[in-house]
């Protein structure tokens, strides 16, 4: 995982699992973080305690779509919130993607590369403004 700023570039490595957040996790870059980190640190804490490494890719995808978790956010009036969820299942060559409150679009990437067109023209869903 690469953490980059205009001033420095640092690499984080872990053979087990890495999580990407909205704040710098490397100690030597933490001074570049914004002042209020409660939300992003809460999501990181949830991720590290969620046993995602024991879930399959589809289960992890639905965990990120679950509005009852801190991973999903509907603070759209504050210009922040979940706009889409995306994953690639390497073993199956499949893409899963969805927007809030919408159906999951599953794409067979191998077939698409060979010229099979998608049947869907758009993703639909809606944002819950509070």
Protein architecture, described:
With 130 residues, the protein is α+β, with helices and mostly antiparallel strands. It has two domains: 1-49, no CATH class; 57-130, no CATH class. The protein has three helices and five strands, in the order E-E-H-H-E-E-E-H. The protein has helices at residues 38-49, 57-65, 109-113, and strands spanning 2-4, 9-11, 85-89, 94-98, 105-108. It has a three-stranded antiparallel beta sheet. The chain has a two-stranded antiparallel sheet with strand order 1-2. A hairpin with a 4-residue loop joins strand 1 (2-4) and strand 2. The radius of gyration is 17 Å and the shape is globular. The model has no long low-confidence stretch (mean pLDDT 87). InterPro entries: Peptidase_C45_hydrolase. Pfam families: AAT (PF03417). This is Carcinine hydrolase/isopenicillin-N N-acyltransferase family protein.
Count of structural domains = 2
How are the strands ordered across the major sheet? 3-4-5
- Helix percent reads 10-25%
- Structural class assignment: alpha+beta
The succession of helices and strands, N to C, reads: EEHHEEEH
Q: Largest beta sheet, briefly? A: 3 strands, antiparallel
The value of Rg in angstroms is 17 Å
How many distinct helices?
A: 3
Tell how many strands the DSSP assignment holds.
5
Distance between the termini: 34 Å
Strand composition percent: 15-25%
- The dominant shape is globular
Summed over residues and divided by their number, the pLDDT gives a mean of: 87
- Give the low-confidence spans: none
Organism: Lentibacillus juripiscarius
Domain Peptidase C45 hydrolase: 2-99
Keywords: Hydrolase
Pfam families: AAT (PF03417)
